Amino acid sequence: MRMPDWYEVSNINDVPSPSILVYPERIDFNLQMMIDQAGDVRKLRPHVKTHKLPQVVRMKLSHGITKFKTTTIAEAEMVAMEGGTDVMLAYQPVGPNVSRLIKLIQTYPQTRFSALVDCVDCLETIATAAVAARTSVPLFVDLNVGMDRTGIEPGNEAFDLFMRIASLDGVEAAGLHAYDGHVHDADANALEAKIQRTFAPVWRLKETIESTGISAGIIVVSGTPTSLEMARHHDVEVGAGTTVLWDTGQPKICPEMNFQNAAVLISRVISHPTPDRICVDLGHKAVASEFDHPRVTFFGLDAASAVMHSEEHLVLAVDDAKTFPVGTVLYGLPRHVCPTMALHQHAWCVRKGRACETWPITARARCLTI
After folding, report:
1. How many other C-beta atoms can be found within 10 angstroms of the C-beta atom of residue 132?
2. Is residue 253 part of a domain?
3. The whole model's pTM is what?
């Protein structure tokens, strides 16, 4: 008798498709691997955006992980609801999100919330709101180290902004944030060289700040590809999040990290449009589609290739469609797990080969209570 593969679910007929499955034992393995590779749990500030699940927040807390990185107010609130004590909003709050951040601080006094800024106007807006609310907001200067998405270059302007934070009422100079999502290389030596070039200006900025007698605070860095090297060699906190669930995209741009896939998509064959094509129910609305194919890698379908992808359909070219009867269940790994999770209302929790409960993907919402 063939033993089932690790991802197979004995009661799969109870699980509608498309769905995403999560495997807590594998998540536990990955969390411990993150701690072991960092060398110190205090160096970890894993990003919540990957999973958006309160159950995983609780798992992190049980491993001694107390610091969290988030992108939305909803993610930050979810972590606070679960007892997280140190939450970074890795985003510059603007518009109504300034007052939402203030309310978050007031509603969850047991949690230290912080945020990013990269311009004086935003800084002064936040400081004014905090003073009016009789509270204080820890702020990190957001540095642009080459990705050109947010932040300011780690030079004189960043120094002036940091010193301005340190001088204003209503805010605290918490440190520096430098996301390096553009830095990756499968070769560890080449990656370390890229890291050194990328972060040399950051270390200089830190030294310049501290030459004034003021602490530069905490330095938060790192996408997944650089997290291992940064944690090993530098006094920083790493904010990688994909390592919790893993996917097929990260291993292509990372040195060997040995994390386990802990999130699996299921879909079913719904049609045979031609003798050499099958259509499955895994459209754009169920798997992240910002990258080229393969957006999902199906187990046992190495020779299949995507030929059409729309909102609720994925058409695959196969040798013989008849070998996949309508209703056939396919298991696959997403190329990019973070946005894929946000496409699903809930995940099915799989324990000992059985889908035993559903976990609402709470922070896929933009607003919880605040």
Report:
1. 11
2. no
3. 0.96
- Domain with 209 in it: what CATH number? 3.20.20.10
- Looking at the fold, whether 30 and 43 belong to one and the same domain comes out as yes
Token pair for 191: 């990656």
Q: What is the pLDDT of residues 38-73, one digit of tens each?
A: 999 999 999 999 999 999 999 999 999 999 999 999
Mean pLDDT taken over the chain: 96
pLDDT of residue 254: 87
Q: Do both 171 and 99 map to the same domain?
A: yes
